[in-house]
Amino acid sequence: xxxxxxxxxxxxxxxxxxxxxxxxxxxxxxxxxxxxxxxxxxxxxxxxxxxxxxxxxxxxxxxxxxxxxxxxxxxxxxxxxxxxxxxxxxxxxxxxxxxxxxxxxxxxxxxxxxxxxxxxxxxxxxxxx
Amino acid sequence: xxxxxxxxxxxxxxxxxxxxxxxxxxxxxxxxxxxxxxxxxxxxxxxxxxxxxxxxxxxxxxxxxxxxxxxxxxxxxxxxxxxxxxxxxxxxxxxxxxxxxxxxxxxxxxxxxxxxxxxxxxxxxxxxxxxxxxxxxxxxxxxxxxxxxxxxxxxxxxxxxxxxxxxxxxxxxxxxxxxxxxxxxxxxxxxxxxxxxxxxxxxxxxxxxxxxxxxxxxxxxxxxxxxxxxxxxxxxxxxxxxxxxxxxxxxxxxxxxxxxxxxxxxxxxxxxxxxxxxxxxxxxxxxxxxxxxxxxxxxxxxxxxxxxxxxxxxxxxxxxxxxxxxxxxxxxxxxxxxxxxxxxxxxxxxxxxxxxxxxxxxxxxxxxxxxxxxxxxxxxxxxxxxxxxxxxxxxxxxxxxxxxxxxxxxxxxxxxxxxxxxxxxxxxxxxxxxxxxxxxxxxxxxxxxxxxxxxxxxxxxxxxxxxxxxxxxxxxxxxxxxxxxxxxxxxxx
Amino acid sequence: xxxxxxxxxxxxxxxxxxxxxxxxxxxxxxxxxxxxxxxxxxxxxxxxxxxxxxxxxxxxxxxxxxxxxxxxxxxxxxxxxxxxxxxxxxxxxxxxxxxxxxxxxxxxxxxxxxxxxxxxxxxxxxxxxxxxxxxxxxxxxxxxxxxxxxxxxxxxxxxxxxxxxxxxxxxxxxxxxxxxxxxxxxxxxxxxxxxxxxxxxxxxxxxxxxxxxxxxxxxxxxxxxxxxxxxxxxxxxxxxxxxxxxxxxxxxxxxxxxxxxxxxxxxxxxxxxxxxxxxxxxxxxxxxxxxxxxxxxxxxxxxxxxxxxxxxxxxxxxxxxxxxxxxxxxxxxxxxxxxxxxxxxxxxxxxxxxxxxxxxxxxxxxxxxxxxxxxxxxxxxxxxxxxxxxxxxxxxxxxxxxxxxxxxxxxxxxxxxxxx
Lengths: 129, 493, 420
Fold this sequence. Notes:
- The complex is a heterotrimer of chains A (129), B (493) and C (420).
- Chain A is an alpha+beta fold and 129 residues long.
- In chain A, 16% of the residues lie in helices and 34% in strands.
- In chain A, the strands form three sheets. A five-stranded mixed beta sheet of chain A has the order 8-5-6-10-9. Chain A has a three-stranded antiparallel beta sheet with strand order 1-2-3, covered by helices on one side.
- Chain B folds into three domains: 216 residues, FAD/NAD(P)-binding domain (3-Layer(bba) Sandwich), CATH 3.50.50.60; 156 residues, D-Amino Acid Oxidase, Chain A, domain 2 (2-Layer Sandwich), CATH 3.30.9.10; 84 residues, Arc Repressor Mutant, subunit A.
- Chain B is 29% helix and 21% strand.
- Chain B contains twelve helices and 22 strands.
- In chain B, the strands form five sheets. In chain B, strands 1, 2, 8, 9, 10, 11, 18 and 19 form an eight-stranded mixed beta sheet that branches.
- In chain B, helix 1 packs parallel to helix 5.
- Chain C is an alpha/beta fold and 420 residues long.
- Chain C has nine helices and 28 strands.
- In chain C, helix 1 crosses helix 8.
- The interface between B and C is large, with 55 and 52 residues.
- Strand 22 of chain B pairs antiparallel with strand 11 of chain C, so a sheet runs across the interface.
């Protein structure tokens, strides 16, 4: 008897409901996925669940008080709040370019936190007119 | 909030910064006396005075020889001059009371008789066809035309009174609640959360709190029966559906009018008020049944109103002196205390209170003159020019303003076309009212169909800058209605 | 009044406006101007700091700001003039646009105009939620902007009404920033957001999801103190005695979007009551010649990728319109109306004036399993397609060929979805 579990894949907006089971110690994807990424996701979700993290970092002297950031890769689920704490305790100075590394190897995950937006120094306002 | 008011002794202390208190303050500001107004809310007109229809009534609804009738008709006649002098908008759009059957036509005739007895000018009964010509969306068999009915924004009117009073040295203490009132041989002592004050004369214009004030110093001989009125506000898109106010024939037993359709001075339409006796006089909740009923009844009168026309809803409480059982009608009580000289109580000031306010203020001034020698000031600071909004100006005026100050070119409220300059101006008001609502009621930002969807970020930003406050300190409308709980990333030391 | 001429003016510099502007330039339009009322370009995207954008279009999952920056760079490299903090006040049928910013009043005379004005959020009053009116009630988008752009925390104990993606995303964001998310309340028997967001935003944090529930009362003297939620039956009516009170200080409303077309309505652009957006033809031109539309103001999209894809078509057509010697005098009497028939909530475009392949976007009015989508003109079937499952929350996109003879016969195209 193979015990089954249904998980929702989060890789893309479709959100396939994938049915997984265990044959002995091995994970088996029974059905539900529309592509290969789903199999990989299902496997990871059981053995090494991870999530992409997006958040903000405080900027001083910028046209905006915060810069949006993301993790360069999905972070282990059980480390998310540790990573967040480090992100929340970080402050940087403007100007900041998009895709600039702010925290290298955050919380020892081997993953970096990078900006996803440009924040100019406060003097330079109204770039567009 | 530290209110630095060095003066503690006043000749007149007014409890309540609603329309009555503000009208009296304004009236008294023409005399050489010291006046203070205690208002527990964060702005003037923070309770019933802002939550009504904004109608300047003609006087057809009050029994002749009642105070309500007398002050309503007197007040009505004063309004045009007041509007010009104080610079608040006023329109004499007139009112139709419509009849759908013969019985109701008899009601129209009865109302006209009352109006005639009250010296209301220009009343005419029009047949259904004439009403249809003037109001294409209204079907009825007859309508009583009341040309002397007008509309104002009740908060704009109250603010205009209060701000001009401040310009003429009346002190308004906001967020200041009176906790005790004592009579000493030669003066009164008023204890507030901002210290103790002395006054020769005290006027209790506390509205729904009038009984609480009476109880501080004597035994009240009355009860208050709060009667809530809910309103719906319709999108400006539908403003062309009616030109004047349209009321069905009044429902007799409650002593209040039925569901009205009232165009507002800004181009919205108000539906309401409902009339519901409740227990808690501070419960201004709106209810599902009343909101549905208001919309349903309005659509029976004007089927062209779509179901999704509502952009806002609010409620005000009538301070009634008569219970539902007894029919709910009682006249105003504007009287000196029976036992305590120098103390005046205003009890049961409900509709037509807004209209009656200037006349009541004159009456109160008369009453006060028996205790204080009132000498007229030779010079009074008048309201220079009516504060006009960007949206009301011509393109040339708009251009010129932007050249002078670029903040006129930054529109922060899209729905009502309000600029940054107007928001800053609203925040610099002489009353020092510093809430989101005090901006809203002065320049209309946030009152449009998106209800702050676009402007909230801007008004907040401007409030932070102008008031030198951080997010945590900003309030919506009353002393403890904070908008936010802090920052996402707090400033670490 | 500062007077300027343009070939294409785009009202709205969000993803739709930028994509349309870039496309217009690429298709030969000369002077293209984008106007946006915010101090930034990108519309709503700069506050959407979560990822999931651009998967279809670029093959990578980007955050909103990253997606916006791509298009802003494209616009800059195409030398498109972008006026930020500029509000369009009105325009007329001669395509004279009056706009205002801190430099003054502008009158822009243009050959073609694109409406890309996006949406506004539904407020408490569209649902007439009863109760008091304390502070602490925000629409989800406003809260998201305050949090992500202005560093302002709206509250500490949050209830979210509406399980669309906006509500789900903000639930997670609030949880990350230390707030207690008491629950997400949803009227329907299913969550309306993407399954991946239910997982990432609710399941991951054990945030309760109350399906078949709605908020029936709001209480709080000055600041919000609690909400009452109640179960609803299949007519959406609250079921008596199922009230539950949740103590909270913040209520976020994620009730849906309303296409923002007040500007267009004032000028007389005809609006489709079902999309909430302008009635357009296959070239995305509205009922006013020279005025085109794209993005969320035309119809609310599911993903920005689809939105940009369609917006580029609008840009192309607007460009072509701008360099025709005379304005296109389409024989608007000879054309087809496209009607949303049984099973279909709405279809875009609503008019067809040229034969050939037309791209349709539509939504089903109810969830169904295997269904048949049909386009018919009278008895003639133009298209019949089997769909594996339909849902109002997923936009359906199909191409159909409109033959010349149908066009000249001036009929109606009926679009239906049925079980068989």
